[in-house]
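Input (structure):
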C-alpha cells in the first residue's frame, strides 16, 4: 500500500482490481453512471451492443465489488436505480479522460492496424 502498510491477506490483488475496471462493459457502465444515477433501461439504451444478460452480469459484478449501489423503489412497477459508490466516483475523471483519449486517437489506432495487417 502507498502508506507502507501491508495489505490484509484477504485483500484483492492489484490485478483483480484493475480487471474490474478494465472490463469492456464495466468501463462503459461506470462512465455512464459518472453522470448520475441511471435505471437499467437507460443504461441498456446508452450502451450500444450490450445484451440484457451482459448488462445484468456487469451491474451485479460492479455491485458485488462495491463500485455500484442498487436501489429499489417500492413502486408499481418497481423502479431500480444504479449509482456509483463514493470510492468508484474517484474513477470518474480518469475514465472520462481515457474515453476522450480513445475517441481522439481511434483513427490512428485503425491506421496502425491497417498498416500492420498489410505489411
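Output (sequence):
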Amino acid at each position: 500500500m502507498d502508506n507502507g502498510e501491508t495489505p490484509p491477506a484477504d485483500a484483492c490483488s492489484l490485478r483483480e482490481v484493475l480487471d474490474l475496471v478494465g472490463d469492456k462493459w464495466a468501463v462503459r457502465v461506470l462512465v455512464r453512471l459518472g453522470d448520475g444515477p441511471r435505471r437499467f433501461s437507460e443504461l441498456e439504451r446508452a450502451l450500444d451492443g450490450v445484451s440484457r444478460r451482459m448488462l445484468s452480469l456487469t451491474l451485479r459484478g460492479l455491485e458485488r465489488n462495491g463500485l455500484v449501489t442498487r436501489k429499489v423503489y417500492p413502486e408499481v412497477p418497481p423502479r431500480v436505480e444504479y449509482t456509483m459508490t463514493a470510492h468508484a466516483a474517484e474513477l470518474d475523471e480518469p475514465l472520462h479522460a481515457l474515453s476522450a483519449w480513445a475517441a481522439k486517437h481511434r483513427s490512428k489506432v485503425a491506421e496502425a492496424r491497417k498498416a500492420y495487417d498489410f505489411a
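Notes: The mean pLDDT is 88. The radius of gyration is 17 Å.
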